[in-house]
Structure formats: structure tokens, C-alpha cells
Amino acid sequence: MRDASRDVVVTGIGAISAFGVGAGALWSALREGRGGIRPLRHPRAAEMRVGIAAQVPADFDPAQHIDERRLAMLDRSSQFALIAAREAVAQSGLDLSRPGLSERAGVVIGTGIGGETTHDEQSQRIYGEGATRVHPLTIVRLMMNAAASQVSIAFGLRGPAFVVATACASSNHAIGQAVQLIRSGVADVVLTGGTEACLSYGALRAWEALRVLADDACRPFSASRRGLVLGEGAAVFVLESQAHATARGAAGLARLAGIGMSSDAGDIVAPDAKGASRAMDLALADAGLAPTDIDYINAHGTGTLVNDGTETQAIHCSFGAHAPRLAVSSTKSMHGHALGAAGALELVAVLGAIRDGVLPPTLNLDRPDPDCDLDYVPNQPREARVRSALSNSFAFGGLNAVLAVTAM
Questions:
Q1: How far apart are CA 162 and CA 160, in angstroms?
Q2: Alpha carbon 101 to chain centroid, angstroms
Q3: Mean pLDDT of 192-211
Q4: End-to-end alpha-carbon separation of the chain, Å?
Q5: Is the pLDDT of residue 169 over 80?
Q6: Which helix (H) or strand (E) is 171 found in, with range?
Q7: How far is Cα 37 from Cα 214, in angstroms, rounded to an integer?
């Protein structure tokens, strides 16, 4: 029997996204059904076939949030993570300097490609401009663990600190690992989530070559869908054991009740409905929930032909007769697909839905697809009571991670 004192609650949320700095800005846009996908801002945008993305606004100035000495060591992805973490900690009201807490507090951050902007810029210097030297802080900017390390340093956290990199499932895997650290008694507090700054020239060209990018809009579950739209940003959460939160008088925002993880062990890019279904089943079992307990699913919902049909099959498999009664939406239609940060941005949506009783919509669902026959909350937000929800992340490589979240 699980020790209820080790149940995991969310006490703080922070984010940066296509809607600006702040979890509030992200959730306000999602609950109103406002899209953040815009024409791509990039010096070489004219060279690319795909010209849209969900980018952090052009007026974002990291120097307004991070001091100059620290900023010199941070890739854009680490900037995002640190800004989101500071907001989350401030909301939680935690005093991380309290004696003894730092050794019981950790950091787990998900990212798909780490310091990609630094890697791209310095590669351009060497291979494009013929430079013989790169920036002296290149390694500490681009190393995969940079975001987790920078957050742990900023808050003086001496517990476990690491990065999880599982492509588009990175955030959910990271959050799942954070839950396990708290349940097991290794930590009382963990800062966790995901960050990604993937809109470099090299990464954009690589995604173009894969031929999965839409060139007009992100239309998850629609018959007219043409692919995914890349995004960037970060979301970080303060997780605490129920006992720790109660002892300091903190009110949890929601409970991370279950995690489910599976691997398709099949195709490197094509998803498998059985693998996705298994991850949902495991999350439900871990949370002690029946399929009929779930009111809402924040879908992986990339907008690609294969993903959306496969995810629909998986939901039918896991939920049976309850599947048609579920509300399912893809917020990637608004904040884009932020790869390793996607699940973290989507958890902001799930927490908002539970707190405010509003389902964020799936934008641009203009034509029904017979293979996608669920209630996808098309185009307009909807008021609804959400007691329990799932958040799905399914990655290239056949890696699946699902979170079950319940109201307090």
C-alpha cells in the first residue's frame, strides 16, 4: 500500500511560451483558444519551405530576467528553464534556503536536443565562416545537462539533478522521474518540467527533410491536417510530497496521481497504438483510477496523419465504451510542438482545466476525419468539470509517457 504522505502535489507553476513569459499568459491563451503560431522569425527564413512556428515573442529580452554574468553561460534553452523555474518557486512560496531542505530538493528537466542554438551558432562559425576558435563557454552552454545544472545552482539544490532526453516524451518522462524521487523518499521537493529552443537553422532544415512539417497551420485530428508546427518554450513545476506541503501549510494545485511509461519496440518513427494504450493503462493503474474516472485527455496530437489516427485508436483501446464520452484536445494547435518541452507546456493546460473548469480547444479542426472520431473540443473552449485527466506524450523511438492528474 502506498504511503499517502508521499503522494505528490504540484505547488508552483512557471512557463515561457509563444504567448510570452509566465504560466498565466500561456493558460490565458489556451483557455481562450488563441493561437500562437506565426510567420517564422529567422535570418534565413526565406530559404526554407516551411515558414511558420510558435516562437517566444520577439520582444523577449533574457537580460531583463537573468543577470549578465550568469547569462553568458546560458543557451536559450537554459534561459527558458531558469525563468520558468523562478516563477514556479515564487508561486510555491518555498524557502529553499531553509536549513536541511537543499539536500532534500532536486531537479529533473526534460529536453530533446539541449543547447541547440549554441551548437548551431558555433558550427556556423567553424564550417560557414572558417573560424578556428569558438566561444569559450560553448561546452557549458550546449551540454545536455546544462538546464538542470543551472537550475540547481540558481537555487542551491543539492539533491538529485539530471536531464531526461527522450525526444517528444522528455518532459513527461522527467516529471515521472521526479514523482518517483518523491514517492521513494529520496527527495521532498523536486523542480521538474521541460525546456526546448529548437528553432535553429540546422534543426529546421532537418525537420523539413523529414517531411512532417505543416506549411499553413497545425490541424490536429482534422482530415485536412498536413503535419506538425514546431514551437519553443519551457514549463517548470514545483512538486512536493503531501507531507512536506502540509507541514508548511501549502495548498496543492493538483495531485500527480499516476505515471505510465512504455516502449513500442517497433518502428523508429511510426507510432504503435498498443504501446500508447499500454502507457495510458499503466498511468490509470498507478493512480488507482478507472477509465470512467477520466474527464479529459490532453492528447499528444501532433497534427501528422499517422500520429493522430494512431492516438485515437489507442484511446479507444484503453477506454472502450467511455472513449466517446471523453473530452480530448491538442493544445499543440496553439503553442506548437515544443519537442522535449511539449509535455510540460501541456501540463500547464491540464492543471488549468482542472482548476478553472475550462477545456482548451483543438484549433483548426475544420474537416472531420473518419479515423479520428472522438470529441476533440473543436475550435472553441468549453466549460466542464475536470476531476481527473491524462496528459499524453509519445515520442520518436516509440517512447511513451503518460501522466494522470487529479484535483485536490
A1: 7
A2: 27
A3: 97
A4: 20
A5: yes
A6: helix 170-183
A7: 11
Q: Are 338 and 345 in contact (CB under 8 A)?
A: yes
Q: Are strands 382-383 and 161-164 parallel, antiparallel or unpaired?
A: unpaired
Report how far residue 266's alpha carbon sits from residue 102's, in angstroms, rounded to the nearest whole number.
41
316 assigned to active site? no
Let me know: does 188 contact 196? Beta carbons within 8 Å.
Answer: no
Among candidate residues 119, 168, 218, 244, the one labeled active-site is: 168
**Which one of 119, 173, 244, 337 is the catalytic residue?**
337
Residue 361 identity: P
CB–CB of 40/230 below 8 Å? no
Instruction: Write the DSSP string, 5-49.
Output: GG-EEEEEEEEEETTEESHHHHHHHHHHT----EE---TTGGG-S
What is the model's pLDDT at position 5?
Answer: 80
Distances (CA, A) of 177 to 227, 297, 401: 30, 21, 11
Active-site choice (119, 244, 300, 316): 300
Q: Name the β-bridge partners of 207.
A: none
Is 168 among the catalytic positions?
A: yes
Three-point CA angle 77, 82, 87, nearest 5°:
130
- Give the per-residue pLDDT at 2: 66
Amino acid letter for position 295: D
Q: In residues, how long is the chain? A: 408
Q: Which domains does the chain have, with CATH numbers?
A: 8-247 (3.40.47.10), 258-406 (3.40.47.10)
Query: Amino acid identity, residue 134?
Result: V
pLDDT digits (tens, 9 = 90+) for 277-323: 999 999 999 999 999 999 999 999 999 999 999 999 999 999 999 99
Pairing of strands 105-110, 161-164: parallel
228 pLDDT exceeds 70?
yes
Interatomic CA distance for residues 74 and 70, integer angstroms: 7
